[in-house]
Each structure stands twice: as structure tokens, then as C-alpha cells.
Automatic annotation (TrEMBL):
Transmembrane segments: none
Species this protein is from: Symmachiella dynata
Domain FHA: 23-72
UniProt protein name: FHA domain protein
UniProt xrefs under CDD domains: FHA
Residue ranges of the region described as Disordered: 134-155
């Protein structure tokens, strides 16, 4: 099962497993991955996990779908190592056959993460405060993102959050 990983904002590191069917990403409540930014269309794009990667189809979004800094036209196959940007949210991906398996979160864990307040979030994070997955059979959802090809300048608060996140990841091991 392919997994998206959020690479920025207060949900950085959150993993969203993708089911073996086409799913949608957007602001609409019915989207499998829901992003609350005004830069994201109601139904921004669709994703279909395959053995080769994730097939991405822009649904005619106003701001487009960006992969590795380039706006895609039509269908595009996202592969491990690619950076996907939808609105302000960046994602990378993992495919079990191509990457080492990572632990996935259950629905209760995801709900807890989404419900947690983040009093230290910067103004830039305010539009990405809600990442949800909606599905009738309540399959697990995760997000993923690869680091950008060129390092981006981070604020002191973002650097501190990154250090704290890495500390807790190492503590878990």
C-alpha cells in the first residue's frame, strides 16, 4: 500500500496510507485527504496507488498540482523521491515494495493528532490546520512527503519543531 507523508506544517511527518482504489484530495468533506487551505480546490486532484508509484490526475484545480517544482499537465506518475505540492502542503511517498515498511497509524491516532491544538504554529501553518481522511469503510489514512531538492529556509520555530520531532522519533527507537 502506497503512503503519502506530510513534509511541512504542523502535521509534518503524518503518514496517510492510500487504498487500492482512486481517491480524491481537496477541501470537500467527501475527499479522502482533506486540506483546508484556500489555495486547494474543493476537489483538487485524484490519486491512484500502483506498484510503480502514485498516478496523479489534476481535477482542473485553480492552482494546479506541483511535482518537483513543476506544474503537471494531465496525468503524472509520482515516484519515490518526488515532492508533491498541493496548495501549501508538501508530500512525499513510500511504496512498500520500493521502500522499507514504516509503521502506520490507526484511525484513533490520526483523529487524536488532528484534534490536538498547536499553539506554536506559525501564521503560514494556519491554513493547513486540518488534514482529514474521509471514507465510508474507515480505512487507515496517512500522508507523506519527500524533502525538497533544494533546502528551504526555515524559521527558528520550524527548526525547533524539527529538532523536537527528531528527538521523539529517536526516543521511540
Amino acid at each position: 500500500m502506497a503512503t503519502l507523508i506530510v513534509q511541512n506544517g504542523k502535521h509534518q511527518g503524518t503518514k496517510i496510507p492510500l487504498p487500492n482504489r482512486e481517491v480524491t484530495v481537496g477541501r470537500d468533506d467527501k475527499c479522502y485527504v482533506r486540506l483546508t487551505s484556500g489555495d486547494v480546490s474543493r476537489v483538487h486532484c485524484s490519486l491512484l496507488a500502483t506498484n510503480e508509484g502514485i498516478l496523479i490526475k489534476d481535477s482542473g484545480s485553480q492552482n494546479g498540482v506541483i511535482i518537483n517544482g513543476m506544474k503537471i499537465e494531465g496525468d503524472h506518475m509520482m515516484r519515490p523521491g518526488d515532492l508533491l505540492k498541493i496548495g501549501p502542503v508538501k508530500f512525499t511517498m513510500e511504496i512498500p515494495q520500493l521502500a522499507a515498511p514504516a509503521g502506520s497509524a490507526d484511525d484513533d491516532s490520526i483523529a487524536t493528532w488532528l484534534a490536538e491544538g498547536d499553539t506554536n504554529a506559525s501564521a503560514a501553518d494556519s491554513e493547513t490546520t486540518e488534514i482529514q481522511t474521509v471514507e465510508a469503510n474507515r480505512e487507515h489514512s496517512t500522508t507523506a512527503e519527500l524533502p525538497p531538492a533544494e533546502p528551504e529556509a526555515k524559521s527558528i520555530a520550524e527548526e525547533a519543531q524539527d529538532i523536537i520531532r527528531r528527538h521523539f522519533e529517536m526516543k521511540k527507537k
